[in-house]
Amino acid sequence: MFETLTSRFDGILKRIRSKGLLGPEEVDEVLKEIRTALLDADVSLNVVRTFQERIRTRALGEEVSGVLNPGQQIVKIVSEELTNILGGESVKLTFASKPPTIVMLAGLQGSGKTTTAAKLAKWFKSQGRNPLLVAADLARPAAVEQLKTLGSQVGVPVFSETSDPVSVAQAGLEQARSLGKDVLICDTAGRLTIDQLMMEEVSNISKTLSPHYTFLVVDAMIGQESTTVAEAFYESVEYDGVILTKLDGDARGGAALSICEVTGKPIAFTSTGEKIEDFEIFHPDRLASRILGMGDVETLIEKAEEAFEEEKSKAAMERMLEGTFTLDDFLDQVQQIRKMGPISNVMGMLPGMTQPGQKIDGEAEEKRINRLEGIIQSMTSLEKAKPEIIDGSRRARIAKGSGTQPSEVSQLIKQFREMKKMMKKVPKNSKSNKNKKKKKGGRTSPKGSVSPVKKGLSLPGLGEDSVKESLKNLDLSDFDFS
């Protein structure tokens, strides 16, 4: 969503860094470029003006006048102010002392409320909670059935009945209490446009449930209109935060950069893809970093730690160091990468993976991985364990079975052979000692600069340190099976 804005900011910040001194004229010139970039991204004019004034005040104040490199200091100010207009801090949810904790979702039809309800339920489950979904959207045909289908996918029960939305909400609350559920998530009806009937219905459900949290679900693709929607809903329902959906789309990002500043309410979660697992807590500083082209290694590592199975990864690492790593092991690791979400999202979190302004073709990357998987899956167990036995006739059979060319099969085998040679040169205690149990608290990426992405075939990380290193090194472009 932010490729164009990232490209514009990259050019602006490069010019700032190259300047030795920044006077009022230079600062105004930079701010003019920033203004144009933000307006082109469909950011609200009032937000752009506020952003400009904050940067100008800090850039021309004592904060910059005494530093050795004012250009770099301006970059820091831009990053911090961008974080501020995105909300400043992540939302931290607390749970009711007397369960259930009640969460209500509101928003326009088509914003993704029903899917978001299921994603939120899955997120609560990952936090060790026991949620219940309540289908109070009786206006849209098949909304109840959709929620039931999604609920079964995430393993969360759905309560519904054919009465009216307020009665459904009340009965759902009683059901949650009787079943001992500690979280209740209520999906409500939306309309294509804001109307009085919808607002009254949402308001009455809110009065009945007295939710601990009310989240407004907003489609990030609608740009500046998102602020109009947010303000209209707040007149009827005092929501606590916003959930932005379709953040993986190709809109210009104005909604994300406007809604917090305009409403005063934080973005709590974002939906970054169509899959149920493409849902995460919103971190303003991390998105600001991505917009400024600095990547988001922290989120990437968190996703890797969620997706990678520790015991399987450790065993695979041992086989790598012993030189007994097979194509089966490699395929397993590639499939675990896919659990981290759309490839375009994963690559977008890696600093230096793409050139500024270059849009990641997620569909092309997915096709490359599909072809890679197809080649390996077309091999016999013996061939995957000992690819050196693959001769011309075997290559032809594998290529036919995977819909590729024999030369592509040869390329994969050659790269895998080179990788094994490299791994044999690694001292056997170099990584295994590092990966001894270190389980105290959460893990984040180290502060400071990140090593540039290196070329070459590399496998996903196995253990904390190697996860970080391998994710930096992973380059899917080496498998160019176009």
Quick structural gist:
This protein is of the alpha/beta class and 482 residues long.
Describe this structure in words.
By secondary structure, the protein is of the alpha/beta class. The chain contains 21 helices and 8 strands. The chain has helices at residues 3-17, 24-40, 45-59, 62-65, 70-85, 113-126, 143-154, 165-179, 196-209, 225-236, 254-263, 284-291, 297-307, 310-322, 327-338, 343-348, 362-377, 381-385, 392-402, 406-424, 464-473, and strands at residues 101-106, 131-136, 158-159, 183-188, 213-219, 241-245, 267-271, 279-281. Helix 6 packs parallel to helix 7 (143-154) and helix 17 crosses helix 19.
Mean pLDDT: 76
Residue fraction in strands: 5-15%
User: H/E series, N to C?
Assistant: HHHHHEHEHEHEHEHEHEEHHHHHHHHHH
Helix proportion range: 40-55%
Strand order of the largest sheet: 3-2-4-1-5-6-7-8
Number of domains: 3
CATH architectural grouping of the largest domain:
3-Layer(aba) Sandwich
Structural class: alpha/beta
CATH topology of the largest domain: Rossmann fold
Unreliable parts: 352-358, 430-482
Largest sheet: 8 strands, mixed
Q: Got a strand count?
A: 8
So, the CATH homologous superfamily of the largest domain?
P-loop containing nucleotide triphosphate hydrolases
Rg result: 25 Å
CATH class of the largest domain: Alpha Beta
Question: What's the total helix number?
Answer: 21
Outline, from the CA principal axes? flat
The CA-CA distance between the termini, in Å, is 25 Å
Question: Which keywords apply here?
Answer:
482 residues; alpha/beta; Four Helix Bundle (Hemerythrin (Met), subunit A); Rossmann fold; 434 Repressor (Amino-terminal Domain); 3 domains; eight-stranded mixed beta sheet; 8 strands; flat; disordered C terminus
